[in-house]
Amino acid sequence: MIASHAHRFIFLKTRKTAGTSVEIALSKVCGPDDVITRISPEDEQLREHAGGLGPQNFESPPLPRQAFNHMSARLARDVVGVAAWRSYYRFAIERNPWDAVVSLYYWKYKDLPELPDFEQYVNEEWIEQLANNRRMYRIRGRLAVDRVLRYERLTEELDEVWELLALPGSPDLPRAKANARPVGHYRELYTDASRKRVAEVFADAIEAFDYTF
Questions:
Q1: Helices in 28-153 by DSSP H: which ranges?
Q2: What's the rounded Cα separation, in Å, for the pair 22 and 171?
Q3: How many C-beta neighbours within 10 Å does residue 65 have?
Q4: Is the bond preceding residue 32 a cis peptide, omega within 30 degrees?
Q5: Tell me, which fold does domain 2-209 have in CATH?
Q6: Which of 63, 62, 88, 91 lies closest to 78 in space, CA to CA?
Q7: Which residue, among 61, 86, 54, 62, has the nearest Cα to 73 in the 3D structure?
Q8: Cα–Cα dist 212/99, whole Å
Q9: Torsions phi, psi of 163, nearest 5?
Q10: pLDDT, tens digit, 9 for 90 and up, residues 162-213
Q11: For the chain, percent helix, then strand, then coil, each to nearest 5?
């Protein structure tokens, strides 16, 4: 999560949606009073190399609660306070669930010599945790941000946010966590059963953003 008092925006980081790359880009325009949460040591090196600010102002006290990666919208509101929450521009990112599930599959098992069975993986709890992305941009089931960007059009839509917020420079996105997945279309891994399982778990996102397999 990043809460910029300098530019009056709050970025809520969802999982497997290039959120780390966006955080790194945003940290390059942040000021000394802005809230920036920690990312992995490897990605912190990438952020430093890109010229972004590292983690800062995320601890409690002085914040009412500690800010952390992948905070829900409700907890982020507690961190920044109701006044800032209501007046700052809030945005997050969502991704086609069938694609996101495949991305998590390759990322989660990237260090194993052999990948586990995809069908079995889809029936475990991991994808249910991934479906909790909705908590990063919803509060009590209702949309709580000004915009949810589409991962599939992230470059164009982030450009639009950059312009709207009058941020300096341009959103030059680094390729964070981009080496785990081989080339190929996500549909190749699915059977009818696994496709249906994802459709059931991510029914809210599929309906809200009109995603199709």
A1: 41-50, 73-80, 82-87, 97-108, 118-122, 126-130, 134-137
A2: 8
A3: 13
A4: no
A5: Rossmann fold (3.40.50)
A6: 63
A7: 86
A8: 10
A9: -70, -40
A10: 999 999 999 988 877 666 677 689 999 999 999 999 999 999 999 999 999 9
A11: 45, 10, 45
